[in-house]
């Protein structure tokens, strides 16, 4: 689909690589199942579920086909900051106070949003008929529908950048997410140089080395205490591939992770 409306189709179980939700995202599961792993909770979205995920959230998603083998399909509408600013200016909506509420809002029961989503379904099979202009119109329609709910104005129109937060708390909540240092810095409300400096003051170590060792400690715990297999652990603790994890584990502890699983 065009621009800020994305149609996704995964035929097999798949870990997604996208871990930072850069824009507010309205998501609908057409078929299959999606597991969303946030820092402190897991949310399972089934066929027919509609949810709004807040911008600048860290999340790991695992997509599953349904029990009949149908692929996991979803429609995602990205409510970009520039679009929201333009909407706010046009409709004289002032900058809202900082939003501290939930990172995910379940909107499955909203009949108007359901009808809106259903109006997008025909374009899945005929994407050539879904123009950029139509995408803009449908995005504005989504905003209008969301604003019928009293809590949505602050959610959508807190257009501020992340502010400087407690670094130790932030890192201990999010160390399992495999994102770049620049992304960690931005989400903590810091420049990269300030992030590295503050990190050194808190942990007396570099971010890269501390994160690697902390993830390996978590992997060791999951293998020894939870009896999980190394191949089932590496991704959940922030490693992109099993080979890299295995080499790092042996370098850190002096033995292979597989020896713990016996």
UniProtKB/TrEMBL annotation:
Residues 165-262 form the HTH araC/xylS-type domain. GO terms for molecular function: DNA-binding transcription factor activity; sequence-specific DNA binding. It comes from the Bacteria. Pfam families: ExsA_N, HTH_18. InterPro entries: ExsA-like_N (IPR054015), Homeodomain-like_sf (IPR009057), HTH_AraC (IPR018060). Keywords: DNA-binding, Transcription, Transcription regulation. This is HTH araC/xylS-type domain-containing protein.
